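Check out a protein:
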Amino acid sequence: MQPDVNRYLKMMEDWDMTHDAKIQFIHELWHIMESFVDRAFGIHPTQQCRDKNRQIDLQDSSKELESDHSHHKD
């Protein structure tokens, strides 16, 4: 999804920036906000990779930990 640049340029008319700098700013800010939304909904690429690895780890019995020590509450 891409931002509606013309919509946001109107809001930046009084800013002391070149036209190209304003467009770049809009795109960069859009990307930052898109990343926040992706993380909030768990669709950020790092979350997908992490979750996939967790599922694989849970299914791999060779990664189980064994210990000779047990913890008892007295």
